[in-house]
Fold:
Amino acid sequence: MKLNRGSKQNHNMKEKILLTSIDLMTKNGINNTSLADISREVNISKGTLYYHYASRDDIIFDIADNHLNVISEALLDCLKEINFQFSTEDFVLVVLKNISNIENTGRIHMYLICEAIMANDALRERIGLKYVEWRTTLENQISQIISDKSHAKGASFLLMSVVDGLVIQALLKGEKVPYEEIAKFLIDYSNKNRTTS
Structure:
């Protein structure tokens, strides 16, 4: 369906509002960004802003949806890189590197998570559903490359937790994250436990 000029302009303004909101919320935090800040930065009236977004929550939901789609696409791209010749260690390494290295999204990811946990039940539900989707996708892929399928679910939860932790560490910029060493440890530890059981 081809957009007409008026709806294209409306779409462009909505996108501009959204991108500006992401920039402001990434820089200042969600709670420190008001609708007045957004309208001032976009150089539009509050009325124009309300035409596109009835509330700040509507903007936050759109940001969350867009952000979660970016991460979902990154996960799917990551899984496309993996083939049946990959070792389990290669699989873990690809997942850790690709998911935690999504440029410019770590900070907004943490703000969205904090907002969801602390104050916004609807956002928590949205993000929670997306996490289930990511984890299930990981579980399905893991079950295709490991011999003991019963470990796929646990491994998928572990990888999601590791990725979230690595995002936090990357944001703190304390030291370079050694992805290869983490992948090797996870696999070696898993293999050691399997042979001693």
